[in-house]
Amino acid sequence: MSDSTAPWQDRSHDVRDVDALRGLYGWPGETSTSKESDHIHPLYRPYIEAAPFAVLATRGPHGLDTSPRGDRPGFVQVADAHTLLLPDRRGNNRIDSLRNVLHDPAVALLFLIPGVGEALRVNGLARISSAPTLLQRFEVDGKLPRSVLVIEVKLVFFQCARAIKRSGLWDATVQIDRSRLPSPGLILQTLSGSIDGQAYDAALQERQQQTLY
C-alpha cells in the first residue's frame, strides 16, 4: 500500500474465508451457543411481549433491507411457540420489506426494549396474510393493518448488552438535540428539487400523529 492509499482501499489484508475469520476471532464459548432455541421458549416470550420496537431484515432481488417496526409493547404477537404475527401498520407505501418477502421468505427480527441492554434476535420464514379475521386481531382505534406477516420461527436467542452499553442508547444524558441533524424537509427539498421543505417540516408532527394507524 502506497502512502497515498487510504487504509480502507488496501485489500491485501481482506479476510476471504471462514478459516481466516476463525484465526481472528477464535471459537464462541458455550454461553454464546447454548442460548439458541428453535422456538419461542417461555423465557424468551416476555422479551417479545415487552418490546415496543423491532428491526425487520429482509432480502430481495436488489439486496438486503432493514425496516423499523414499532407500536405499543407486545405489538408483535406470539401465536404459538413457533409462530409470530407482525402487523404492517401505516407507512410510506414503499412496501420494500413486503416485496422482499414475496421474493425470499427469510426474515430476521431484532427486538429492543427501552432500558434493557439485551436484545432478542429471531430468524424465520414469513408469509403475507390479508385474512380479515387476522387483521381484526390487530385493530387499533377502529383501524386495521393492511396485512400481517405470519413468521415461522426457526431460531431465537438473546444478544448480549455490550453494543447497547457502548452506544449509551438508553442513556438520556447522551441524547442529542434534533436540530443538530438535517430535517426531513431539508433532505426532501434538496434531493427532490421540488418539495417545499419548510412546509413539509411545519406539518410533519401533526401529520404523523394523525396517521399513526
From TrEMBL:
Organism: Paucibacter sediminis
Annotated protein name in UniProt: Pyridoxamine 5'-phosphate oxidase family protein
InterPro entries the record matches: Pyridox_Oxase_FMN-dep, Pyridox_Oxase_N, Split_barrel_FMN-bd
Gene3D superfamilies according to UniProt: Electron Transport, Fmn-binding Protein, Chain A
Coiled coil (residue ranges): none
Taxonomy, superkingdom: Bacteria
Start and end residues of each Pyridoxamine 5'-phosphate oxidase N-terminal domain: 43-160
